[in-house]
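Journal club prep — side note

Before the paper discussion, L.F. wants everyone to see what a predicted structure for a comparable chain looks like in token form. Sequence:
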Amino acid sequence: MHIPDGFLDPNICILMYLISTGFLIWAWKGAKRTLSRAFVPLIAVSTALVFAGQMLNFPILYGTSGHLIGGTFLAMFLGPHAAMISMSIVLLIQAVFFADGGITTFGANLFNMAVIGGLSFYIVKFLSGGAVPSSKRFFASVSLASWLSTVLSALACGLEIGFSSAFASVGGIVMTVPAMLFWHIIIGVGEAAITTSLTAHLLRTQLPMLHGLTILQEAPS
């Protein structure tokens, strides 16, 4: 899922940087409005957890890879704004210190995983329809949102690399989109199972740190 340098055309890199920067500004303003400094250690811990989970990569096609993302889990744990920031930190560390994802393609990787992952919060909100967090409908919503965010991330990645000239010789999006979707439809099932299990466990603990769930309950259906 992490796109290396050289895979995307410059115009796509610039476009994705602009889009991702806009979302990060929105996330930063939202986090400042809804979070206190007491949540900083929690963000650090959740970032480290997702960082470790993303280190398990599955090779897919022409240097691209798939892995568990953790975006929906972060959204349920921290809320949509802090989830984007947390995932952005994960991706920045990976790109700078582990060469997992490029610098020129960083904007695209941010969009594919941090932005889509954070916005999956609103998929849960829509699907759950204000259902009680411990209900079957809520858990089904978390599971489906987690799976869908993984598939959408793969679709975005497939489109970005498919529209780039480096992949024109192998068929462009005709090759890249099906390849990314095929594997991530499967990977998304595992992502959904892990995310739902972790969310259920955290709900049973009834900890006040579940900021994403707090926002979900307060938000109008």
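L.F.'s comment for the group: The radius of gyration is 17 Å. Keep this in mind when we get to the figures.
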